[in-house]
Amino acid sequence: QKNLRLLSAEQIELARMLLEMGQSHLFEHWAEPGVDDEEKKGFFEQVARLNSSYPGGLESYIKTARELLADSKAGKNPFDGFTPSVPKGEVLTFGDNNFINFEEAGVREAQKAAFVLVAGGLGERLGYNGIKVALPAETTTGTCFLQYYLESILALQEDSCRLTQGDCQAQIPFVIMTSDDTHARTIQLLESNSYFGMEPTQVKLLKQEKVACLADNDARFAIDPNNKYRIQTKPHGHGDVHSLLFSSGLLKAWHAAGLRWVLFFQDTNGLLFKAIPAALGVSATRQYHVNSLAVPRKAKEAIGGITKLTHADGRAMVINVEYNQLDPLLRATGHDGGDLNDETGYSPFPGNINQLILEIDPYIEELTKTRGSIKEFVNPKYKDASKSSFKSSTRLECMMQDYPKTLPASARVGFTVMDAWLAYAPVKNNPEDAAKVPKGNPYHSATSGEMAIYRANSLILRKAGAQVSDPVLQVFNGQEVEVWPRIAWKPKWGLTFAEVKRKVSGSCAFSQRSTMAIKGRNIFLEDLSLDGALLIEAIDDAEVKVRGSVQNKGWILQNVDHKDASVPEELRIRGFKINKIEQLEKNYSEPGKFCLNP
Ligand code: GDU
Fold first, then answer.
1. Nearest atom in ligand 1 to 132's CA
2. How far apart are CA 475 and CA 103, in angstroms?
3. 539-590 residue pLDDT tens
4. What is the pLDDT of residue 122?
């Protein structure tokens, strides 16, 4: 009471709300007025922030938390009354006519798209000390994930304007959702690399706030163990992206500018943009309000399963069921073995890779109703079976892929399945955990993420008519992986299959021990035979034809131990480094036509 005199009217209102909502314990240990006054001010600043950043404010947060905690205590099944079945979606085969047509449709649409990267997570499972988007996707060129994403969006922008002969001034907006854990380092990465060639105004950062931690089943807020004048907070999950796009006004601005699509994606997938054009083409052609990208999923793999849920009362939806919930849901609905592979060797439920394409009109209509709030969940770790107290504080969480949960039955919710080798190779697991992944399931490590890029590029070149030698098996950090020729190219060289095909002709061949890095838009491979390392860089106005045979000692992968602290962390976590012995390197920095024929 005595402390009230220090407060502004707005702060008194917040204090009253907290008291009414059963949070009086937050003030019990407060010192007399005059003592710790700055800290007390800080407390109210924090409460004001927590209140304004949550749709509906703290009151609504506490109410929802009480409901969800009561459901959790009662062991209520979130899927009560729903029966799971395998939904129907678009299944694409890389490189066939259907795929090429969807890719072209997608490239056309791209100039009406905005991209949103959710990158607020620290990646605790990976245990890397930096932000995940700063990690090299592959170490042949050293391109980090963020660079790959920006360059892919720029390539798509240019391809789209060429194809449609449209307005080449138009920029595809790019948003990055960060958090306090990643914000400053994301800005620093962008600024120290001149935004990887993108106009700084084209990129917007939206920082998500953390949410209040809950100490008990009554949703009493947990006090920060390091400061008795602060509420402990934790991340709320990637679902925050929807309310941030709404409250920032960006969505409205995009809509007003005539954009049609918003594409969401995650922090570490070095293959993603190989799948984006075709998936966007599917959205446009099938007129999907929601389109999730999926890959065949191994049972128990740590990715959600896309599932059709049909309720006894007639409701039905196509939604991601998170990996830890799919098995119990299946068991509870008569599938005795739970989450199992079928005769194809995969789970019948396609794996959600959390790449979502939303059509803006219905999206903005829905968000106008919900303000972007997404169905939340709570996952308390209880001390014992009585479920009356927690081992540590918990909080409400939400996931961006739960957006369709509030949509009306008339919404067109679909998905697009692509080959995993083409579309999905995330970096989530540290070397120890990756080495323990059951044989045949993907490692999702820095090692497998990099190898997947070489495999995809090799397979794409094969499909384009080149001869690419088979891979060899090698073990890095305890993980057996296929090592294909280390082939990497800039997105602007070949974002789509049609573009790669246009640039590869004659009889090209690559031996397994080869390395090739192509950095330039107009580099054409004609009858190239490579057995060694070849690096070509060219400005856009230089057209380079590459012919003949290149042979040298090349670049060799050398094992490193993930515990060897003398090796930089970025390399250690993949278990190898590249020993650059000999290469042919050419750089074309003047406009003109050139032929490289060694
Ligand atoms: N993220 C945030 N804010 C958060 C938490 C996470 O922006 O508060 C971001 C991360 O940076 C990352 C993305 O969200 O880019 C996903 O985070 P994780 O990689 O930790 O996600 P999970 O592996 O737990 O699961 C998610 C989906 C799954 C499945 C999987 C596929 O929830 O259904 O699709 O990705 O990669």
1. 11
2. 35
3. 999 999 999 999 999 999 999 999 999 999 999 999 999 999 999 999 999 9
4. 85
Per-residue model confidence (pLDDT) at position 4: 66
Question: What atom of ligand 1 comes closest to residue 304's alpha carbon?
Answer: 33
Output the residue whose Cα is nearest ligand 1's atom 16.
266
Cβ atoms of residues 585 and 516 within 8 Å: no
**Ligand 1 nearest atom to the CA of residue 123, by list position:** 20
Q: Which residues pair with 580 in a beta bridge?
A: 555
Is the CB of residue 437 less than 8 Å from the CB of residue 111? no
For 417-443, what is the HEC assignment? ECCHHHHCCECCECHHHHHCCCCCCCC
ipTM attached to this prediction: 0.98
Alpha-carbon torsion, ordered 429, 431, 435, 438, to 10 deg = 0
Give the distance (Å) from ligand 1 centre to CA of residue 584: 40
Which protein residue has the closest C-alpha to ligand 1 atom 4?
Answer: 237
Closest alpha carbon to 472 in 482, 480, 462: 482
Residue 130's CB is within 10 A of a number of other CB atoms, namely 15
Among residues 345, 280, 348, which one has the least CA distance to residue 308?
348
Residue 326: what are its φ and ψ, rounded to 5°?
-65, -45
Which residue carries 């390539």 as its tokens? 155
Cβ of residue 146 lying under 6 Å from some atom of ligand 1? no
User: How far is it, in rounded angstroms, from Cα 15 to Cα 43?
Assistant: 10
Residues 6+ apart with CB under 8 A from 406: 366, 369, 370, 375
**Token pair listed for 471:** 């891979």
Roughly how many angstroms between the first and final C-alpha of the chain, as a whole number? 85
Q: Is 121 in the pocket of ligand 1 (CB under 6 A)?
A: yes
User: What is the CB neighbour count within 10 angstroms for residue 360?
Assistant: 21
Say how far apart CA 219 and CA 214 lie, in whole Å: 5
Nearest to 323 by CA among 295, 342, 292, 298: 298
The full length of the chain comes to 598
